[in-house]
Design goal:
The complex is a heterodimer of chains A (307) and B (370). Chain A has 307 residues and is mainly alpha-helical. Chain A is built from 13 helices and two strands, in the order H-H-H-H-E-H-E-H-H-H-H-H-H-H-H. Chain A has a single domain, classed as ABC transporter involved in vitamin B12 uptake, BtuC (Orthogonal Bundle), CATH 1.10.3470. The radius of gyration of chain B is 21 Å and the shape is globular. The chains are: A mainly alpha (307), B mainly alpha (370).
Amino acid sequence: MDTDLGLWAIPIAIIGGAIRVSTPFLFVSLGEVLTERSGRINLGLEGTLVFGAMSGYAVAYLTGSPWAGVLAAALAGSVLGLVHGLICSLPRVNDIAIGIAMMLLGMGLAFFFGKPYIQPVAPDLPSINFGWWSDLPQVQAALRVNVLFLIGIAAAIFMWWMFRATRIGLLIRVVGDSTDAARAMGLRPALIRTLATAAGGAFAGIGGAYLSLFYPGSWNEGISSGQGLMAVALVIFARWNPIACFWAALLFGGAGALGPALQSAGFSEGYYLFYAAPYVLTLGVLIATSSPTRAMHGAPGELSITK
Amino acid sequence: MADQPLTGGGTGVFAADGWQAALARRSEAVLIPLGALLAGFLVFSLFLLILGKSPAEFFALVYKAGFGTWFSWQNTLSRTAPLLFAALCVALPARLGLVVIGGEGAIVLGGVMAGGLAGAITGLPGPLAIPLLALTGGLAGAAWIGAVGALRHYRGVNETIASLLMAYIAIALMNHLVEGPLRDPASLNKPSTAPLADHLRIGDMPGMDVHWGLAVGIVCCLLSWVLIERTTWGFAARVAGGNVRAAQVQGLPVGRLIVGFTALGGAFAGLAGAFEVAAVHGSANGSLATGYGYTGILIAFLARHNPLALIPVAILLAGFEASSGLVQRRMGLPDATTLVLQGFVFIAILLSDTLYGRLRIFAPERWGRG
């Protein structure tokens, strides 16, 4: 049968790309929601993402099991988050600047230890074929959904429920909205924020493992180009709501898939500009949702970025 | 962030204390960053020891390749120029309490604009064309980072995230330009703009193998220091950096200050790009994005955003970058070693923020009135 879809290939490739590209956005932004809801911002998740990609790939290669790699990436991410959280617990330390430093350190350590793993091939994460009903290879390729994507959706729903209906969610929200109120309740804000940052780092680490173990599916030093940073901006766009993070991640994933989709459809002119689409979209979203005069709707009260 | 000062103590107005109290206050601003630098080196040394490498050998190699001979000094000083410009791009906005980390974008854009213009003005004589190239690079950088400042003030967009996004956009823009409209068909493996005509290239300073960017960079640091410490504009910026509301109540033009300082910082970073093209690479290409902008962030924080202190700190870090190749060959360490070292030092310097005003030895009261 004729498999040349012409221009229809582009939207199909974008939908498939959105599902593939969005997963790291989803995990990093869920981690950042958890951290920011507790009143801190971790700008270092870009570094965590890269370090998670490296450690996940290395462990998957050494053990032969991609899931061991995911676990290692989560562990490594939580350690980086823990360091960020502990340092920020000290008085008069700037959490934004620490985030920049952790970003550089995370990338530096990932490149340092990752050198021997650029050549070897690690096993991929499994995916489920939702495109079995179609004869078109393009549709089948677009609907081959990775298990981590589904886990990410489940995590988003769980986190939404946790903030809404559980004691832990309430504690995190109280600490994030008012340090004084939390202290008056006998809570320890620094401890809760540190734990929230460590858990957030674990999410970002898993996002990194997805990059190196599924899409693009190899480890190299250019594996992330700002996805971790864009996810932080995405959280502002999603108004600190985990469910909204999922839709925002899909949107950003679609923007990220635009360049490769056009390139594979034969457009060779100016596709570098389309590679800038996710950054332009992020910036546009930031401009549209920020305001110089009023505090942001839904923002945790203690967040330094919105004060 | 009013309770988390980016700029150090020690620059405040002095009370009528004795010289010991004044000295104690001054030393705090010098000794704490110095201690943090050493602490960062110490942690890095432990890191090397755990990996079974010798820290002594590492620092000896850095000394040899960065500062050991006149030849290595020239190598270090050549790398200092872009770092000075990149650090100014962080230090100037920091005086207003802004954390701008996208200097890399201004460098790249300044470089590609200068490289593109150079192809169009080959007819002009060098003394006229070279300042024009520098001006173009500076203007491109000023527009790029000034836009970040304007977004911050007029739209409330977080400048840290916006500047880094703008850096990614600038790199995509450069790739587009050198792969497309500005591409020299003769550049096959590495897409570049057409090579600069010989009379448009910026040469070395007399008596050394170091291009003029270093001298211009040092002059820019001195001028920035005068601007911040000795002019009403600088004073107004420091007030606004301390407390924006108070500055607005005083009737200071906070918006113009923010746009002006970010644009000036961006102009310096754009100048770095123009120098890289006209003095180092000879054409604009992907080599412009080599991370000078990110090292500049660390330099500015280490120097506590003081333009004079940027000079020695930039030379020190340029020495580490200059020795990277030798360290790789002799010790079998990957090129990311410098990045790891920078990360440790960066965290140490930020950790030291918690020490200000808490070490009793630096307390002026302890030294009384002389």
